[in-house]
């Protein structure tokens, strides 16, 4: 690097002893240097430049420094003013970095121009940036390791401890200064630790995990990961330590909170339905909980409610619940099953009759169920069985709140809330015109669809347990009945076509007929036992039958064949198979012959 001005002796210019082409020589000389070189006159115009200065910096002969490298123009003028060389001036052109040296050219004590030398230091800048990046990364990694809540050990490929973070010191109650530099086997031999996951990794060359108990009584879960260099040699082993004692405590606290939350929910539900003593309503499934919550909300208003659901699902229980939590709870709820009253008497039962209204009518007349339910609630069960003629009068009442007794002429205003229920397909009845559309829309203000028991699987076993105890108390038997696993499985898998009502009957039968302490599979009703075999086929056999494109008759025959074949293979004899399927032996014999089984 130049630190003094470049001086040319006049004798060098006048000497003609050298017979070289000075112009070609000077160009070759300049182009041979790896640096960019340019000679500027006193006006900072380029006079001479080599190929690097031209290509990298656009310093072609005739160009002004101010137009090509304006950031150097002021500095160059200062150099000419002071007549002192300056260096370490950086210039960035696109993606390249240059260290610039500016030196005045002197002749006989007078300045002739300026020599510029540009050295490409892009590679050095890149190395510098990389070093800064590595330094930043090192700081980040150091921060992560130090601030981690998990313990971290870093060992080399021989098992020597290189680093241990503060969390690990805390977990193991040892100091890093006592550990770093020692081999893991040495730590085991000295009793500081009982076993090493690092040594396992060195041996297996794969990720390993162990449980470790430290002297403080804490239980740690250690996971070690191997790190290999580019040649496949084990370079580092990184061990992560986690205090699972704290995690287990946290898990226990979460479970306690969840249990408390569930208890609050149960307490709230029991307060809402006030059934803690009788346990008439047992609710474990989410879909049934939604029904109960909806029923509680409906109890607070006077809207007409239509309860839908299969027979035996407990529609009457929901009606009782609504009544109990309504503003009419201190008034009667009058119930009427529309399906149990002869069609000719339905109207008189609902609306009452005047004396002499029809043959056999009382001499003083009789109030109907609506009058009896004045200021209370009337529950019309099996509303789908109501004759069309009575449907008209019911619709009229819902519209104006007035009734007229059979044989009467005067109307009477009644304040009663109507809750209706049915197990029939009302929408299909609308299509067939056996139920009035206008009445349906009047009743269907707020519908409640009760799920069948087969869709309330979580409720089955609690219901069974409750009603077994209930009937034991009722028939003064000890509560020592226990269900064996196979019996529990069968009762759980059974589809209960009669829903809760059927389950109650099964429980009563088991209590009445059973004398031993344990109830086994064979003690169950045949309908339950046979039902299990059908349910076993539901997901596989039935889907295969449906996909085969058979007619309904062919599908039924195929199902029958599979059920008979399954039962016969299971019980080996016609008598036992017939008993399991709830058939007589002659029927089984005929089926076996029909399907060429056995």
What does this 3D model show about the protein?
With 598 residues, the protein is of the alpha/beta class. It has 4 domains: 6-125, PAS domain (Beta-Lactamase, 2-Layer Sandwich); 148-246, Beta-Lactamase (2-Layer Sandwich), CATH 3.30.450.20; 279-451, P-loop containing nucleotide triphosphate hydrolases (Rossmann fold), CATH 3.40.50; 482-594, no CATH class. Helices cover 47% and strands 20% of the residues. It is built from 24 helices and 22 strands. Strands 1, 2, 3, 4, 5 and 6 form a 6-stranded mixed sheet that branches. β2 and β3 (46-49) form a beta hairpin. α18 (457-474) packs across α20. The longest helix is centred in the middle third of the chain and has 30 residues, at 244-273. The chain is elongated. The termini are far apart. Residues 271-279 and 533-542 have low confidence and may be disordered.
Label this structure with key terms:
Rossmann fold; 4 domains; alpha/beta; elongated; 22 strands; Beta-Lactamase; about 45% helix; 5-stranded antiparallel β-sheet; about 600 residues
């Amino acid at each position: 690097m130049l630190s003094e001005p470049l001086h040319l002796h006049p004798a060098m210019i006048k000497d003609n002893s050298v017979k070289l082409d000075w112009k070609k020589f000077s160009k070759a000389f300049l182009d041979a240097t790896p640096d960019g070189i340019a000679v500027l006159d006193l006006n900072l115009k380029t006079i001479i430049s080599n190929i690097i200065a031209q290509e990298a910096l656009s310093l072609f002969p005739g160009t002004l420094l101010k137009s090509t490298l304006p950031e150097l123009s002021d500095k160059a003028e200062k150099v000419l003013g002071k007549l002192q060389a300056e260096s370490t001036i950086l210039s960035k052109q696109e993606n390249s970095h240059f260290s610039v040296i500016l030196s005045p050219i002197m002749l006989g004590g007078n300045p002739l121009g300026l020599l510029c030398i540009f050295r490409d230091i892009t590679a050095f800048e890149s190395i510098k940036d990389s070093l800064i990046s590595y330094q930043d990364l090192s700081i980040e990694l150091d921060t992560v390791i130090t601030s981690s809540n998990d313990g971290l050990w870093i060992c080399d490929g021989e098992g020597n401890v290189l680093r241990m973070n503060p969390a690990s010191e805390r977990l193991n109650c040892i100091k890093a200064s006592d550990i770093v530099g020692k081999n893991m086997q040495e730590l085991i031999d000295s009793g500081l630790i009982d076993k090493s996951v690092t040594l396992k990794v060195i041996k297996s060359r794969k990720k390993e995990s162990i449980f470790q108990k430290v002297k403080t009584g804490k239980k740690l879960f250690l996971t070690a990961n191997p790190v290999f260099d580019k040649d496949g040699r084990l370079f580092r082993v990184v061990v992560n330590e986690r205090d699972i004692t704290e995690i287990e405590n946290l898990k226990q606290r979460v479970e306690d909170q969840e249990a408390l939350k569930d208890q609050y929910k149960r307490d709230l539900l029991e307060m809402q339905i006030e059934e803690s003593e009788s346990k008439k309503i047992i609710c474990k499934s989410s879909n049934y909980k939604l029904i109960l919550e909806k029923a509680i909300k409906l109890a607070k208003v006077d809207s007409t409610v239509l309860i839908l659901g299969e027979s035996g699902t407990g529609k009457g229980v929901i009606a009782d619940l609504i009544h109990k939590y309504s503003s009419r709870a201190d008034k009667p709820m009058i119930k009427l099953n529309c399906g149990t009253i002869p069609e000719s008497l339905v109207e008189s039962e609902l609306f009452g009759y005047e004396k002499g209204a029809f043959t056999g009518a009382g001499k003083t007349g009789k109030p109907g169920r609506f009058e009896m339910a004045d200021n209370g609630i009337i529950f019309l069960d099996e509303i789908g069985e109501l004759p069309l003629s009575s449907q008209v009068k019911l619709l009229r009442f819902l519209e104006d709140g007035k009734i007229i007794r059979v044989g009467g002429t005067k109307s009477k205003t009644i304040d009663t809330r109507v809750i209706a229920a049915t197990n029939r397909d009302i929408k299909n009845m609308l299509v067939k015109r056996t139920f009035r559309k206008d009445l349906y829309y009047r009743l269907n203000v707020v519908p409640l669809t009760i799920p069948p028991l087969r869709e309330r699987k979580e409720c089955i076993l609690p219901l069974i347990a409750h009603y077994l105890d209930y009937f034991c108390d009722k028939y003064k038997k000890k509560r020592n009945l226990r269900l064996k696993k196979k019996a529990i499985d069968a009762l759980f898998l059974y589809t209960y076509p009669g829903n809760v009502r059927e389950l109650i009957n099964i429980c009563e039968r088991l209590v009445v007929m059973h004398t031993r302490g344990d109830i086994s599979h064979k003690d169950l009703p045949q309908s339950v036992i046979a039902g299990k075999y059908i349910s076993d086929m539901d997901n596989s056999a039935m889907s295969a039958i449906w996909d085969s494109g058979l007619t309904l008759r062919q599908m039924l025959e195929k199902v029958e064949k599979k059920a008979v074949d399954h039962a016969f293979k299971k019980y080996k004899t016609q008598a036992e198979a017939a008993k399991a399927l709830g058939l007589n032996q002659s029927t089984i014999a005929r089926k076996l012959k029909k399907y060429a089984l056995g």
